[in-house]
Amino acid sequence: MAPQLSFQLVSFLLLLAGTSVAATYPKTAGLGIVRRSMISGYDVDLPPEFVTYYYTQTLDHFNYKPESYTTFEQRYIVNSRYWGGPNASSPIFVFTGHEADITGVLSIAGFVVELASHFQALLVYIEHRYYGDSMPFGSEYEAFQNASTLGFFSSTHALADYAQLITDLKRNLSAENCPTIAVGGSYGGMLASWFRLKYPHISCGALASSAPILYFDDITPQNGYPVVVTKDFRDTSESCYNTIRQSWSEIDRVAAEPNVLSKLSQIFATCLPLNSSEELKSNLEVLYWVSAQYDNPPDNPVENLCNAINGAAEGTDILGKVAAGLNGSIGPPCHHMFDLKPSNKDGWTWQTCTEMVMPIGNGDNDTMFQPSPFDLNNFTRTCEGLFGVTPRPHWITTEFGGHEIKSVLGNFASNIIFSNGLRDPYSAGGVLQNISDTVVAAYTEKGAHCLDLLTPMASDPDWLVSQRDTEIKIIQGWIAEYRATRAG
Amino acid sequence: MAPQLSFQLVSFLLLLAGTSVAATYPKTAGLGIVRRSMISGYDVDLPPEFVTYYYTQTLDHFNYKPESYTTFEQRYIVNSRYWGGPNASSPIFVFTGHEADITGVLSIAGFVVELASHFQALLVYIEHRYYGDSMPFGSEYEAFQNASTLGFFSSTHALADYAQLITDLKRNLSAENCPTIAVGGSYGGMLASWFRLKYPHISCGALASSAPILYFDDITPQNGYPVVVTKDFRDTSESCYNTIRQSWSEIDRVAAEPNVLSKLSQIFATCLPLNSSEELKSNLEVLYWVSAQYDNPPDNPVENLCNAINGAAEGTDILGKVAAGLNGSIGPPCHHMFDLKPSNKDGWTWQTCTEMVMPIGNGDNDTMFQPSPFDLNNFTRTCEGLFGVTPRPHWITTEFGGHEIKSVLGNFASNIIFSNGLRDPYSAGGVLQNISDTVVAAYTEKGAHCLDLLTPMASDPDWLVSQRDTEIKIIQGWIAEYRATRAG
């Protein structure tokens, strides 16, 4: 049985980094525990222009029960180095935090700093509730006790947090007349676009990078994600694709032999003995997903991986080739296998178990993976076991829409950029066509997940530079329009 | 001291009726108890084309605590008499229930039936949670126990109720391709417009009648409402206005004499002896408010009232004139005084005590009433005493906007009609200018509260017929646009 795709895939949303798979895979491919270690890794001293604040946030925006009036301290980080100030009506860029410690984005998502510099803007990074240091009930330990303490952990609350914090912050800064633009990536990109849709009075535009807002309900085919992974590999190398495609049944065939785990452990140079062949397959599958999701220059992880597979010594069998691929991606001396079981101490797992139900699955023969359709019943049972909650698979489309988005938003809404890289498997659930003159798609053929948000580098290819220039030009228009309508 | 304006005024939102003050005042001018008797009055057998259903609704849409999964039975009423059905993509008009038993609107708001007939549409009236028969926890008694049971009673939940119910209903009717238009009046009109803004994927347009969405925070001057009341009276009769304006100090002067309540009771022909002169003043003030709010033809209550005041026998003193006005409006033989104290068993009082904080007050010499500025501290203390909750006076503008609405929505949103009658004091907080080509204001100089929604009659003046024709024409455009974008 393949790993539980929907839990695992979505957990990658937290990866904003586009650095090489070799660097990120060991830290990020797993779930809760792995992630937290990654978060700790981010938690370094901030550069002096980034100042940390805490906002006393309403726990429950939509109810008025006595407990709803409880508050928690929400972290936000401000960079005012470039800001022209309220008298100049200089813009404010709000980074709508995603499912991670907010400090993690500071060193990675450098494009927002470039935006701030270009527009003399204030930068405000807001941490999403229940991540990082923004824990209700005083601590992560308390917040993750059970469904009663986790119960306030939802996307609508996150958006309302942003609304309330920004409104108060602008008032305190006398910056009510400063155009405010939401920026986010992945789940944070969904939040940025939803924020513009739900709170147009607070945000005059949104840059939503790699936001798969259409990967809910039946809008996007379930195999959208693995089909793109497969395409990335097949476009890179037909033989590499064939090797991977054949490897699963080969692992199954070998695994059917008695006492074979030590042999598999040896072939794949695992640091610890494998517990099962499923453990191996899950880890390999995740490696391919991550490689595709971050298949960006200059590292080009899919090409690296395929080069390693294809470059195995002549006569190497399929398992040997796949093992060579693993080694080529992760490097020697040995390979840690990650525990990919969902955890009830993981925030994103909670979110997928409640409302962020992205039905991602492999069909028969439509990908290079073994069949593993999304099974809502299984998924529900798992969530009930983990948290005692039942997922609401239709809630996101009820609350935020998604069906027939071009018709719905064609004459409603404005000023949203949906940016994508088509190598990113999540682009399958992204907005890839212009919805109107001002709700537009900006994608690159060769980019992957959240690439445009990363810190610009001299080595960036022209198509990436061009994508970012397009975004700046569009945002320039929003700001000009904002000023024109306020002046008029 | 004048009555607590903000509690009382908003309670009138529930009045959709445009029938004469003589008919409605005794039933509706008060708060909780009075209202419930009115509701009971509505609760008659429905005509056969109106069929009642109950939807199992989620209690808490935005949280995922164990109790959030509790459900309640939400009442909705369907009239399918005119519907062309899903194959014809015939429209659906959804009446977004306001702060009242939903059955009350059926016999009054006949314009929606005309809309259904004109457009071969399905009519769905959805009752607002915590009103009428749509009580969480099984009964009104249980629902109104305390802030814990009332805590789920908010406008955002009401909107999410509508979203979920409509989405499910359309799926069940295979009516996903039927354009759906929200219609509501007063608070229900606010909900209709907010529903279009927040759920454009569910509603392709909204007719928001007499919706004072700008009567929050500091957007509209606090005295907006009483200033319009005053203008209505002064425009009708300068001497009537002067009599009323002078009457308050005259009552105070008389009331300062010893043992005067029996004398006042006699002058004003109260059915029971007055408890205080404040009781008299409050009831008179409310009478003037209601008369202005429903100052429509053919009854023209302000003119009636002023005729009675001005027609008092020569030599009648000020109190006698005002008493003649009361008698002219309410009729003999005696006049009930209503207990205008806010009640913790009243739904709208809960809503004003939590989020629907409309800061309405009289300033000095700017109205025909005594000064009575809105006092948030007082208001807060009252709410804390009633329910143990603290109002959130900035929440509505944070969640729904309102400031700079023309700039904010000028290039965002579409297909909303804000209809008003300028004699309605609530029009002071309404949208009275076109925001864009498709978010438009349609008002009449001579109409009052929710007049356009009332059942059309042969005696309707031309300007009212014209207002409704304009609305039909605009809605026709929405439906055509909807079909064009879906066909394309």
From TrEMBL, chains A, B:
Keywords: Glycoprotein, Hydrolase, Protease, Signal
Signal peptide annotation: 1-23
Pfam family, one: Peptidase_S28
Transmembrane segments: none
Keyword NADP (UniProt): no
InterPro entries: AB_hydrolase_fold, Peptidase_S28, Ser_carbopepase_S28_SKS
GO biological process: proteolysis
Tagged with keyword Glycoprotein: yes
UniProt xrefs under Gene3D superfamilies: alpha/beta hydrolase, Serine carboxypeptidase S28, SKS domain
One of the record's GO molecular function terms: serine-type exopeptidase activity
Family statement: Belongs to the peptidase S28 family.
Protein name (record): Lysosomal Pro-X carboxypeptidase
